[in-house]
Amino acid sequence: MEKEITAIKNDFCALGKFISEWFKTSFTIHNAFFIVKVFIVLLLILIAFKILKKLIKNIPEDKLSDERRSILQRLVRYCFYFAVVVYVLSLFGIKLSAIWGAAGIAGVALGFAAQTSVSNLISGLFIVSEKSLRLGDTIIINGITGVVDAISLLSVRVHTYDNQMVRIPNSSIINSLLTNNSYNSYRRLLINVSVAYESDLAFALETLKKAPALCPTARTDPVPNAWIEAFEDSGIKLTLVIWFDNPDFITVKNETFIAIKKVFDEAKIEIPYNKIVVHNA
Description:
By secondary structure, this protein is α+β, with helices and mostly antiparallel strands. The protein has 3 domains: 1-94, no CATH class; 131-180, Roll (SH3 type barrels); 186-267, Alpha-Beta Plaits, CATH 3.30.70.100. It has 8 helices and 8 strands. It has a 5-stranded antiparallel β-sheet. The protein has a 3-stranded antiparallel β-sheet with strand order 6-8-7, covered by helices on one side.
């Protein structure tokens, strides 16, 4: 037992002697100034990064949209990481020219695999510059309807009305027909309704024009309108146009259908529908 304790003491003494010798040979005034210089440079880079982030954050929304702000903050963060990595590598004597040479060789091999990412990146810059999308907008693309949750340099993320997340590559948005229902503050609702051939068309049309007045959520500017659309197999199709603010879509649609049914019932105008007549033999 005593031998083991003695061996442990000798090990600790050897370790202490090694640390002492290392401090004497390595921890010089020159090295101390070098460490302080490295700390100051990294601190200045961090301070510059924090200042840029704060300046971007304080830009008014009317001059910089939320999606542009997010992408700009992400670019600043990437630049900060790059600056730190480059500076640390330079401390170890690693030259960037050697890195670029190795990256060039690897880039040839990876270039073909990165074509899609580069295409999405460039498309993302076009999307941000065009301002065709904003956070919270309701869009339709390739049969998908959803609300925009995030806009990045590679893709746009939306959630559908079923609360499913859909990631849309930016290149698909640039190369496809995009409908943005929220781009303008208000839009048009178009509803078709049929009347029987026996109906007085002029009276039916004037009756239909009374429906918007029963929709309190609908806009009065632009003015609602109605017209005769077409002669069809089972009736004459009329069209009613009513305008609404984007958030009121469901409310206005329900109000309009209820109002049409109400004014037609009061005027005793029949809306044709399929009927089955059974005769007793």
